[in-house]
Amino acid sequence: MSMVLAAGTMLAACGGGDDAGGKDTDKKAFKVGMVTDSGTIDDKSFNQGTWEGILQAKKELGIQEKYLKPSGETEADYLKEIGNLYDAGYKFIVTPGFKFETAIYQAQDKYKDAKFVILDGNPHKGDYKPVVKDNTVAIFFAEHESGFLAGVATAVQLKQGEAGFIGGMEIPAVQKFNWGFQQGVKYANENLGTKINMKAENVLYQGSFNDVAAGGQIAAQMFDRGVNVIFTAAGGVGVGVIKEAKDRAKAGKQVWIVGVDVDQYADGIYEGDKSIILTSAMKKIGHATVDTIQHEVDGKFPGGQTLIFDAKNDGVGIPDKNPNLSDDTVAKVKEVYEKIKSGDIKVSAEKGDLFK
User: Fold this and answer.
1) Which helix (H) or strand (E) holds 78?
2) What is the pTM of this model?
3) Contacts of 317 (CB under 8 A, 6+ apart)
4) What pLDDT is recorded for position 205?
5) Nearest CA to 237 among 255, 256, 218, 221?
6) Predicted pLDDT of residue 16
7) What is d(CA 228, CA 221) in angstroms, rounded to the nearest whole number?
8) Cα distance between residue 228 and residue 345, in whole Å
9) Does the CA dihedral 103-104-110-114 come out positive or negative?
């Protein structure tokens, strides 16, 4: 397995999207399938980002597309839908998230003439030892760089105050978001005249990605301790965090949330078009999906490789539109982004002396 940078620029069975509304009915059209993780293609997270990338590939490359939603979240559930896609002629299959790791480990051997893309995960047999075969590509993102940019944006926009972090499970992707955010805040404090404080008690992991109520409770405790902005990378737990912030905003409190993975601005709307989402630390999932499909169309599928999407190949960042950020903040974040791309700023993916 080689570590490389991607060049350039990711039912019960309710199937969806098979040529829906399109004209690509030619049987020779390249077929791209997707199996969703828990949730649907409008989950405002990994499923949606992946599906939007596939739809972009349909528009740009004329592919045929289809997704299948499993009836559950087990390896068997995932393998069943992978098999259904394969039987329907969809032999380029994209799977969003680490929950597909053992399923793809098996599928890459079972369907040797198919191609697999796994986002944010490595195929393994349950022992966490990566086995990326020649018909599979594993894609990861530089969460620490994305978190860093969100940290800079937060500090520059708010100037001063208390920041917190609420993660889901304490896994590498979530940890790197946290560590990058802390580094971004520190960078802004040291170089851009900001005074955002972070305390150990306000950096924690709930331990799951689905306890909405716990997310709200933890956020309430942080806000009560004087925290005025929380970065949450926590799935369903983050939904609870956002709800607590929205309730407080409705009551006239000025609190903010930094979203994760995708642009979560819409999730934070609490009145009119006002949102408590200051900005979001994004993984450009759709970009990675389109890029990999393009490679296959060009006959350059990077099979057997683990690709890292980072600032250098525009794989991470904050949203293009940030209604709650000033033009000055956006300009400063762009400057920092360019420095990360050029290597002038190096963001660590390790904890070092940071919290948690």
Assistant:
1) helix 75-87
2) 0.88
3) 146, 149, 282, 284, 311, 337
4) 98
5) 218
6) 58
7) 11
8) 27
9) positive
